[in-house]
Specification:
The protein is of the alpha+beta class. The protein has 5 domains: 3-70, no CATH class; 100-139 and 141-214 and 257-330, Zinc/RING finger domain, C3HC4 (zinc finger) (Herpes Virus-1, 2-Layer Sandwich), CATH 3.30.40; 223-248 and 336-441, no CATH class; 446-512, no CATH class; 517-570, no CATH class. It contains 18 helices and 14 strands. A 6-stranded mixed sheet has the order 4-3-5-2-1-8. A 5-stranded mixed barrel has the order 6-9-10-12-11. Strand 13 (542-544) and strand 14 form a beta hairpin. Helix 1 (3-15) packs antiparallel against helix 2, helix 7 packs across helix 11 (308-330) and helix 10 runs antiparallel to helix 11. The radius of gyration is 43 Å and the shape is extended. The two termini are 85 Å apart. The relative contact order is 0.07.
Length: 600
C-alpha cells in the first residue's frame, strides 16, 4: 500500500469529503476500528515499504496539554531583586572572560614603549598584543604545577589560560616523548601532550611570556569589617586610563598615555600598563639567567641533576633576547614623550577615595559616604582631604558591567569589565572628618543603613548556627545508626558489658580508653603469648570474645565466678562434715544420665 494514498484516504475519512458531499458520521469505536484496519493494511504492503500511518496522530510536546499546563503554572523570573541597590544577579551580569581577556582583567603588563596603544587608551577591555608584551606582573601565590615550587624560577605564563610555570618545567613538558602506542595515530596526538597541566589549553612556546612576581601579600592590603582603614583621594582626568593620588596628580602632565616602569615616583600600584625600553629587557633576562644557574648548582649538589634542561633554558633566554634586540635595531624611532597640555582641575577630572591598591578587588568609598563628605566640604571636590581614616561598617561587592560602568560608576570606567569592586560603607558617628551638622543631616539615612547591615549580620549568624546544628544532627544520626548496627551484631554480649563500654543511651557515645585495662602491663606480667593461651582457671581474669580475643572480665562476671566457687567450696565442706569418721572414703559411684527422645 502506498503511504501517500493511505494518508490521503485517511484524511478524507476523518475530515469529510472535500467535494462538499454529506459526510458520514462515525462514532469513536468505528473510527478506532477503521484506523486499526489501515495499520494492518500497511503491514501487508510490498517488501521494503514502511507504513507512515502512525504519524497521522503525531503531536509535539509543546502542543500537548502537559506543556501548556506547566508553562501556565511556572513562576515568572523577576528582573529586579528585593535586596539593596548593590546586590546583583551574578548569572545575569556575569562577564565571560577567557584567554587574553581574562589575563587583561587580572594582571598588569610591562610593554614595549614603541608600540601603538591607542586602542587601550580608548577602551580598557582591549587586550595588549602579545608581540608588544615584555613581561606580565602577577601577584604572589602562584606556584608551578610541575615542580610545585612556591617561587618559580624564570616563570613563564601561558597566555592561552593564564597559568604560570617555571621555564625549565615548561621546556621539559614540551620535550615530553609521545608513547610508542600513540605514534601511529593522527598528528593531533602530538598537540595532546603539549597541553597545560592544569587545563586543556594548548601550549605554544612563542605565546608564553615572562612573569614578574609581586611579593606584596594581599592579606595585609585587604580591608576588614570593623577595623579602621586609611583611604586616599584619587584623581583621574577624563582622557586618562589610570588614576593617581591627588597629592601627585601633576604626574599626568608628564605622561602622555601610560607611565614608564622606571618612573619616579613609583606608580606600580596605580596603573595597569607600564612602558619599558631595551635596557629593562637586558636586565630582566640577565637576572633570569642568574636565577637558573644558581638553582642548578643547588640541585646538582642535592640531587645530582642533569644539565639538559638548564642549558635549554639558557638557550631559550638567548633567543628571546636576540629577538628583542633585532626588533629595536630595525626600528630606531623614539617614542614621543610630549607632555599633556590638559588643564587639571575639578571640572575635567574624577575624584574618589580608594584603598587596597595591591589587591585583585578595587575597594572604593560607597556613593552615600562620598555624598556625606562632599556635603561637609561645601560640595567642592577640591576641598576634600587627601586621606581620611574611617571605621568600616560593611563592604558591598559588585562586578563592573557595561551598564553600571557607563551609567552609575563613570569614575571607574578606566577599569576593565568584570573587575570586582568593594564599596566600603563607613560609620561616621563621632568622626573627625565630618561636622555635627552633617551628621544630623544624614543621620536618618546612615542609621537606616546601619540597621539593615546589623540585621544582615544577624541573619547570617543565624543561618550559620542553623547550618552547624544541622551538621551536628546529621553526624549524631550517623553515629547512632552505626552504634545501633554494632549493638545488633553483638547482641550475644551481656547487657552490662555493652552498657559499660558502649553507653546505655545507645546514642553518640565516646569511649574513654584511659579506663580500659592495659594489655601490656608490667605489673601483671602479661604479653602477647600469654594472651594467646587460655587464661588460668585460678585467676579467671580474662574471657574469650566471639572474635577469639582475650579481654578482661567485668566486675559482675568476676563476682558471679567467685560466688560459684564459694558455693562449691561450701558444698564440699558440708559433704566432709556429713561423712562418718574412722571409715575410709568410699569410691564415689559414677552417675550416668540416660536421656530418651520419647516424650510421649
Amino acid at each position: 500500500m502506498d503511504p501517500s494514498s493511505s494518508a490521503s484516504q485517511n484524511h478524507k475519512n476523518f475530515h469529510g469529503n472535500p467535494k462538499g458531499k454529506k459526510a458520514k458520521k462515525f462514532n469513536e469505536k468505528e473510527i478506532t476500528n477503521q484506523f486499526e484496519r489501515q495499520l494492518n493494511l500497511g503491514k501487508k504492503g510490498k517488501k521494503n515499504q514502511i507504513s507512515l500511518n502512525h504519524l497521522l496522530h503525531y503531536e509535539s510536546y509543546r502542543e500537548s496539554d502537559e506543556y501548556k499546563t506547566r508553562q501556565a503554572t511556572k513562576p515568572k523570573n523577576r528582573s529586579r531583586t528585593s535586596r539593596g541597590s548593590f546586590d546583583y544577579a551574578p548569572d545575569k551580569y556575569k562577564v565571560p572572560l577567557t584567554g587574553m581577556s581574562f589575563i587583561n582583567l587580572n594582571y598588569k603588563f610591562v610593554v614595549d614603549y614603541k608600540g601603538n596603544y591607542k586602542p587601550q587608551e580608548l577602551d580598557p577591555n582591549v587586550p595588549v598584543s602579545r608581540k608588544d608584551i615584555i613581561r606580565i606582573i602577577a601577584p604572589k601565590g602562584n606556584s608551578c604545577p610541575i615542580c610545585l615550587s612556591d617561587e618559580p624560577i624564570a616563570p613563564r605564563m601561558i597566555t592561552a589560560c593564564g597559568h604560570i610555570l617555571c621555564l625549565k618545567c615548561l621546556l621539559s613538558l614540551l620535550d615530553t616523548e609521545i608513547p610508542s602506542f600513540k605514534k601511529k595515530e593522527s598528528s593531533a596526538v602530538v598537540e595532546k601532550y603539549k597541553e597545560c597541566p592544569l587545563c586543556t589549553c594548548i601550549i605554544r612556546k612563542k605565546e608564553c611570556k615572562p612573569v614578574l612576581i609581586n611579593n606584596i601579600d594581599e592579606r595585609f592590603e585587604t580591608p576588614k569589617i570593623g577595623t579602621d582603614v586609611i583611604m586616599t583621594l584619587m584623581s583621574r582626568p577624563h582622557n586618562k586610563l589610570f588614576s593617581v593620588p591627588r597629592s601627585i596628580e601633576n604626574v599626568h602632565y608628564q605622561i602622555k598615555n601610560f607611565p614608564s616602569v622606571t618612573n619616579t615616583p613609583d606608580l606600580s600600584s596605580y596603573s595597569r600598563l607600564f612602558k619599558a625600553d631595551l635596557k629593562y629587557i637586558l636586565d630582566m633576562y640577565t637576572e633570569e639567567k642568574k636565577q637558573i644557574l644558581q638553582a642548578y648548582e643547588e640541585e646538582k649538589l642535592l640531587y645530582d641533576e642533569d644539565s639538559k634542561y638548564t642549558l635549554m633554558a639558557i638557550d631559550e633566554i638567548n633567543k628571546e633576547l636576540d629577538d628583542w634586540t633585532n626588533r629595536y635595531n630595525e626600528d630606531s624611532t623614539e617614542c614621543e614623550s610630549i607632555a599633556s597640555n590638559d588643564n587639571m582641575n575639578a571640572g575635567n577630572s574624577f575624584f574618589y577615595y580608594e584603598t587596597g591598591f595591591n589587591t585583585n578587588t578595587t575597594y572604593v568609598l560607597s556613593p552615600l559616604d562620598i555624598k556625606v563628605l562632599k556635603t561637609n566640604y561645601n560640595d567642592d571636590y577640591g576641598q576634600l582631604p587627601s586621606t581620611i581614616i574611617v571605621k568600616i561598617e560593611n563592604i558591598q561587592y559588585e562586578e563592573l558591567t557595561p551598564e553600571n560602568s557607563m551609567k552609575k560608576y563613570k569614575y571607574l570606567s578606566h577599569l576593565p569589565l568584570g573587575t570586582s569592586i568593594g564599596f566600603i560603607q563607613c560609620n561616621w558617628f563621632k568622626n573627625d572628618f565630618i561636622s555635627q551638622d552633617t551628621w544630623s543631616t544624614f543621620k536618618a539615612d546612615l542609621s537606616k543603613r546601619s540597621k539593615k547591615t546589623s540585621q544582615k549580620f544577624e541573619r547570617e549568624d543565624r543561618n550559620q548556627k542553623r547550618a552547624q546544628q544541622e551538621e551536628e544532627r546529621r553526624t549524631k544520626m550517623f553515629f547512632e545508626q552505626e552504634n545501633h548496627n554494632f549493638h545488633n551484631s553483638s547482641n550475644h554480649r551481656s547487657d552490662n558489658f555493652t552498657e559499660e563500654y558502649y553507653g546505655a543511651s545507645g546514642g553518640l557515645t565516646i569511649v574513654d580508653n584511659r579506663e580500659l585495662p592495659s594489655l601490656l602491663s608490667k605489673t601483671e606480667n602479661t604479653d602477647f603469648e600469654e594472651l594467646d593461651t587460655e587464661p588460668s582457671t585460678s585467676s579467671q581474669e580474662f574471657q574469650t570474645t566471639v572474635w577469639g580475643t582475650k579481654i578482661r572480665k567485668t566486675e559482675e562476671a568476676v563476682e558471679e565466678d567467685l560466688e560459684a566457687e564459694e558455693m562449691i567450696r561450701k558444698a564440699r565442706e558440708e559433704m566432709e562434715k556429713n561423712q562418718p569418721s574412722g571409715k575410709k572414703k568410699k569410691k564415689s559411684k559414677k552417675l550416668i544420665l540416660l536421656s530418651s527422645n520419647n516424650y510421649s
